[in-house]
Amino acid sequence: MADAVTTDVCVVGAGLAGLVAAVEAADAGRDVVVLDQEPPQSLGGQAHWSLGGLFLVGSPEQRRMGVRDSLALARQDWFGSAQFDRAEDFWPRQWAEAYLDFAAGEKRAWLHGMGVRFFPVVGWAERGDGRADGHGNSVPRFHLVWGTGPGVLAPFIRRARAHADAARIRFLFRHRVDEVLTHDGAATGVRGSLLAPSPAPRGKATSREAVGEFAVEAGAVVIASGGIGGNSELVRRMWPARLGSAPATMVAGVPAHVDGRMLGIAEAAGARVINGDRMWHYTEGLRNWDPIWEDHGIRILPGPSSVWLDALGRRLPAPLFPGFDTLGALRYLRGTGYDYSWFVLTQSIIEKEFALSGSEQNPDLTGKDLRLLASRVRGGAPGPVEAFKEHGADFVVADSLGELVDGMNRVGEPGLLSEAAVRSVLEARDAEIENAFGKDAQITFLRAHRRYLGDRLIRTAAPHRILDPKHGPLIAVRLNILTRKTLGGLETDLSGRCLSSADPARGAVIPGLFAAGEAAGFGGGGMMGYNALEGTFLGGCLFSGRVAGRAAASR
């Protein structure tokens, strides 16, 4: 075995949570080693690929858009969504309260002080299940960072590199941790395998060939290694019965290195993993026509107007509308016996409402390109959306409904859909457009939500008949289940310290062992409970990474 490296704090994972933990510990004067199994070109992890949305409460951006938000309303929404119901939810509840205080308090100012800026229109993600005290955001809270995911990462990478130049932080890439070392019940470091160097571009699968061994002795170990979304076998194994059967086919929303290995390794060291059955996967996944990783999927960020049909052509029941209730829709669709569903829409809707998740799918926002951004308000869908419409295997475009249904039967399972059945659904919906009032719940929501300036400007098309040729052509999009996030994880107290599995009732911690980010269920082992409100994943990495880094430095 190679000679052991000795440091004050060892961070496992060079994603957003790990970077935040590392720079916070280094700011406190500690020497830090950051380990990652991927090569240097993957610095920043999953956050690099993200759209860069952050959950904020009572922000200046909200006020400028006419949104009145408060900590009390955000708390009502959060706990109505989380639906905490287990004894294991003690620490997740505490983390939820702390995170809400952060999101309504210093979070924006902290980021703003590091140069982070926000797009002026606040998005309204996860609009909910229709109950005031149930799941969903009562108001828009999705704040898009100017620069998307790379824009969130930038200040922490800049700080980390400054510490590296001062020999305070040392990055060791292609170092895969295989064991957390302990002595007398305390974490004392890690050991693992040196992997062969890899020139693979960011996101591509890298070799797992071991060419040596290593060990790091540390006063504190922070596990910030991410979740399980890139490991489809593990996703299926952990899939909860309440969401129906696990899908036979899925697309991957994250690269293969998001494999969940460190959760089992931490468990072997005595840490407790809770709420492993809580997960967050989307129903609006597209097969990427230009993939970066295997089975690469891209999520549609839908506005609320598309008509949502299951694989048999039946309209989803209210309030399972696009962008409303992610897991409610997933649960319903798993009961249909098929792994896909459909959006049916018009060119007018795709131009106003379709966006794609991911930094690489939004070059204007990621590149901070005002000229390119201005093209969004001109005719046509955004360039990346039009590219999917032209090249994507999941898109059907037609001038008549008969042609559209024929195409849907080619892209989906042959013969499942009939033109007559789909026409019946669309004509019934279109009949509700003729008056400014009616009983169709989706159209009622459309009209109400367009009273929000942000929706009216860039997110929600004026209600119109789907079968109106003036708004054509007709478009159908096959929607695949897309793996994404782990909502449970390593149980931690409010200092980010991992709790021991030896005596859960006593709540003993493992000295020297901390967790942050998705590995910790973004805090506590699951601070979002059963449902997320969106913008909370990057924010959870920021908050839990900051907490764990500062606490690890204080040991």
From TrEMBL:
<dbReference type="InterPro" id="IPR003953">
    <property type="entry name" value="FAD-dep_OxRdtase_2_FAD-bd"/>
</dbReference>
<dbReference type="InterPro" id="IPR014614">
    <property type="entry name" value="KsdD_DH"/>
</dbReference>
<dbReference type="Pfam" id="PF00890">
    <property type="entry name" value="FAD_binding_2"/>
</dbReference>
<feature type="domain" description="FAD-dependent oxidoreductase 2 FAD-binding">
    <location>
        <begin position="8"/>
        <end position="538"/>
    </location>
</feature>
<protein>
    <submittedName>
        <fullName>FAD-binding dehydrogenase</fullName>
    </submittedName>
</protein>
<dbReference type="InterPro" id="IPR027477">
    <property type="entry name" value="Succ_DH/fumarate_Rdtase_cat_sf"/>
</dbReference>
<dbReference type="InterPro" id="IPR036188">
    <property type="entry name" value="FAD/NAD-bd_sf"/>
</dbReference>
<keyword id="KW-0560">Oxidoreductase</keyword>
<keyword id="KW-0285">Flavoprotein</keyword>
